[in-house]
Amino acid sequence: MEKLTSPYKWGMVVDLDRCTGCGACVVACQAENNVAICGKKEIAEGRNMHWLRIERFWVGEYPDVRVRFLPVLCQHCHDAPCEPVCPVYASYHNPDGLNGQVYNRCVGTRYCGNNCPYAVRVFNFYDHEHAWPPPLNNQLSPDITVRSRGVMEKCSFCIQRIRRAKEEAKAEQRLIKDGEVQPACAQTCPAEALVFGNTADPQSRVSRLSRSPRRFRLLEHLGTHPSIYYLKGGGREHV
Amino acid sequence: MSELSGKPLRTTHTAMKSATQLNDEMLSSMRAPTWRWYLLAFVLGAVVAWGMYAFTYQMMTGMSVTGKNRPVMWGFYITGFVFWVGLSHSGTMVSAILRLSQANWRRPILRAAEAMTVFTISIAALFPFIHLGRNWVVFYFLPFPNQRGLWPNFRSALLWDITAITAYLIGSSLFLYLGMIPDLAIARDRASGWRRKLYEVLAMGWRGTAREWVVYHKASTLMAALIIPVAVSVHSIVAWDFAVTVVPGWHSTIFPPYFVIGAILSGVAAVITLMIVIRRVFHLEDYLTPLHFDNMGKLLLVISLLWAYAYFVEVNITWYAHEPIEWEVFSFMSDKYAPLLLLMLVGNAVLPITVLCFKKLRRSIGVMLAVSLLINVCMFIERFLIIVPSLSRKNMPFIWHNYAPSWVEISVNIAAVAGFALLYTFFAKYFPIVAVTDVRELEVRQVRMPFGRAELPSIAGKE
Q1: A195: three-class secondary structure by DSSP
Q2: Which pLDDT does position A238 carry in this prediction?
Q3: ipTM for the whole complex
Q4: Domain segments of chain A: what residues?
Q5: What is the fold of A19-175?
Q6: CATH topology classification for B23-143+153-438
Q7: What pTM, to 2 d.p., does this model score?
Q8: CA of A89: which chain B residue's CA is closest?
């Protein structure tokens, strides 16, 4: 049997010193991935569908108050707590190190959502299939399923883009070049705070950045080994 | 016949009820239903129908009709699930342990307890199905070769759950059925019409020969010994649903034994409640005496002490470790749910431990009813306080969210209680609710036969 290995281990670096909290990544993600648009009611209920959220924290005492932003998306853990708890393999690990989610396998136990310490898994509490009345349905991406009610979904690192880049690279009999593929959030970030790439390649931009002394990973003590590295310097000069 | 044991053996002079009389009294529940029985069945059926409506509404509309959100993705349904699995625990356990330890006072209550197990585990098994986002694909859980080419993930605690519950359901049903065979034969001999046909099939041609009794005793002892590990494993596995996660407040090694103790506590309390109800409804005052309540009260006291210890250890270790996020969960629980927490501590530990120390109170039916009902309410609260605060205060403070059950979830939980009561009502009407042959066996054992000038036990040897 063919061994499931891959020359790719996709990862991301989030430079918090660059992030301005503009929210462009959130919008880009929403547009790219057919993420349902939620109103005030759903957000108040805690049922918004964002795959990527920007956490905002106030630091310090008045008048010396500063704001900090923390973009949180699926961390694509290498020891993901969501994977073993799924009874039907809807949540699984693919050879590229991505934490996949198969929508049509999902039965909706929501066990993965409970066990995700980052709380980045979103559940379709509502029927969002008809959330795009015509002509808005024309904006739906044909590359991605519109998820039905009752299933769990989450950030896929824009797997459809990775697939396309892989096909193109395969046709030309080469590997994907660094920077050739990036998810919508990284592509959109005006401050280049989000950098995506292949962490298996030590020369890639993401690998070089991830070796920065400013690096840390979210909730590292839980041993989930996330694929996303955050960078944060000690100084206060960067808001 | 006032008490079944704890008294010196009687002699033949004492007035004894005839076998027919005993059968008559103990099978009185199987007489033709009265209008009150129909009324009860109708009311319970109506509540169940309401619950089914609520569930259908949820299935048609989506999980948005529940109070769940991100990150509180489990709520009242899983609380109900753990609660009902807990209740199922004791029936079989009490019956099996008392059978193996040859406690004679078990005899009138064992059937009620075993039947309770079967019905509660059946109700419990419905909850994981009800709480699914897509109930209609529930068969994805089942390990059978299929066109999808997929096998369920046996690393998931939910698969362990399904396996354990199926095993327990089959085991406890067999245990109940096996113990009922001689009684079904009595019922068969007294019945007519379709019921006679039903019991004929169920009694499997039992005639009461010596060999049949020998096999029956062996089989029921063996079954009692086998069912105990299954019962313990079931609730350990339910505890693993929580303990194997990384959720603060759930990830705790004490959970399996703690859940087993909690399960036995709620189960024993439920057995006592049922004993009181059955005693009252079917006029079995002669068979379910204060002595039984006294003994069950002692059992409840011990388990309540154990529960208090386990809870103390859990909280104490968390406090000592003072892991920030775990401590946040506990602080949140004691802040937002303070009344519930206090009620739980009083109802599960303080009150039972105080009250059950007194023999007079243990023998008082009213007090026992109040204590056992309170314990079960508090055990529901206990499960709620384990499940919900932990999810509300997970690791990422930005996304903390509270949970309140919706009318759909409450309706389904109430319907579960009604459904259990309905199943039990039917069972008591159509099957012997008191283990007739076991009680009569004890009657015979307690009689001494004159043998010349001496008086000897009527049956030589132990059980």
Answers
A1: strand
A2: 45
A3: 0.90
A4: 19-175
A5: Alpha-Beta Plaits (3.30.70)
A6: Formate dehydrogenase/DMSO reductase fold (1.20.1630)
A7: 0.91
A8: B153
